[in-house]
Design brief:
single chain, mainly alpha, globular
Amino acid sequence: MPHLLKIIVTILAIGMAVFHLYSGGVELLPATQQRAVHLGLALALIFLLYPLNRKKDHLQSRVETGLNVILAVIALACGSYIYLHFMELAISLNSPSFPTVLAGVGVILLTLEASRRILGWSLPIIALFFFLYAFFGNNLPLMIAHSGFSVEKIITQVGLSDQGILGIPLGVSATYIVLFIIFGAMLEKSGAGKLFIDLAMAVVGKFRGGAAKVSVVASALFGSISGSQVANVATTGVLTIPLMKKGKYSSQYAGAVESVASTGGMFLPPVMGAVSFLIADFLQVSYASVIVAAIVPAVLYFFAVFIMVDLRASRVESTNLKKEIEVPEVKKVLRSQGHLLLPLILLVYFLLILEWAPPMAGFWAVVSIPVVSWLRKHTRMTLLDIKEALEQGVKLSLLVAAATACAGIVIGVINMTGMGLRFSGMLVELSGQNLIVLLVLTMVTSVIMGMGLPPVASYVVLAVLAAPAMIDLGVHPMAAHLFIFYYGTLSAITPPVAFAAYAASGIAGSDPMRTSFTAVRLASTAFIIPFMFVTGPALILEGQPIEIAVAVATSLLGVFALAAATEGYIKGPIMVKTRFLMLAGALLLLHVGTITDVIGVLLVITLIVWELIRVKMMRSKGINVEAG
């Protein structure tokens, strides 16, 4: 990139960061103006940063550079037009002027092209399919046809209204998500990323299978403030994957652990891959209620992964980290770097205790980071550090901005044609109004729709198409939205488009497809957790305290049993028949209900005690347990 363009990119990125900080913590703009500035700047930066052909390795030609500059200027012009005429647009979309139609065309085409550059073809193709449906859907069979719309209506509804590209998803990106991504980038720049890894090493590194457990804990901590599974893998995996390989784990297993842990970071509050804010907006509930509901499923997810890697460590006799690397002490880590946790604590305090609006909480959390960094000489952020963090945060937010804008095309068409209700009705009809069948259909739909997309993009589309069908059959709305979020996100480790597993395999030097299949096996419990909280809302903390406590306790036991049955190991290899019985007991426990819980607890505890006694007796007789 020419030096002049680099300067322009830096100016636009810093300007975008300052704008969002100002509008978040000082003066909130009208929604359409806020979204117009966000979209215009994001599209312009994408065109300047991402080449026309993503597969090109050589420098861009002058013609391509010139084209990118022109597209960036047009993007800024479209954003400026909407910003300046937002009042007129609110009342004149039914009889738009020629410049308004032209701006709408520009926004739609630029959004599709920018999304293609930064996301690949998946979401733009889906959006284009829906866009064509808006034009020609009136000629389709009656079951899926709509009444037809004029060209002007389609363009303005999709491109310029708050029901399309400028709708709620882009609004959440503009007001919440960009601030929290900047927060994460600033926190990382302050040294908190290193703190998370050091803290994980200090807490679990000294135990059996310490390297894998460090990966699980560090990825959970970093993922809680990140919005990307791949970013988690790239940040923590470069350290944890080589450590796991030194600890006798295979390359394939090491890559799988990192990808599963990094994907799980999307489920962990407070940020949850930035989807927590979208769920709150879609359901019109407080942000606090979303993260409270998400806590237990996230704990179950990481508990399952932790148990799986512990049992594998026992099987392969994996060493702790003391033999490979100096494990820091918790006190020393906290004494040296613990102050860097204060911004995260403040963020949670602002959101949950003071119940501030997310933009205000995000603004003050970002502001607190440089201040907190000055509490220790070795962590003090310079003006250059702050500038780089702001620029990096904005660049990371571009993917979310493009994804939400492109998903807005889909939502605009769905709202205009009524396709959402029709699709939900089709799902209910296909399921025969059987909830379990509907959940399986929704799971498959969510995984397919999520392939190759960030969590935000897949959730936005699924929230309109799939969640209503579940709610129609009596599923708690929060459980329905968390259900589609989980499976859309788990597509990052699900073949054939398991981009988190593929990223981890690149670091581990393992076969990508085998790594993704190992990741699915490792996360097998995660694929059951959404069914658990849909059929037992106590796991999203809906119900009486005793009911919730019992549900959580039995679910933890069920997760352990499922992990043991999957790994085939406790203190030694489990007999085949015991594994099947353990699996049955786990499934009984994972189904929230009094009768199933009682039977499951008795069965699982009996099997565990039996296996422990059997292994102990075999060892006392000098029999090689590992050989069976």
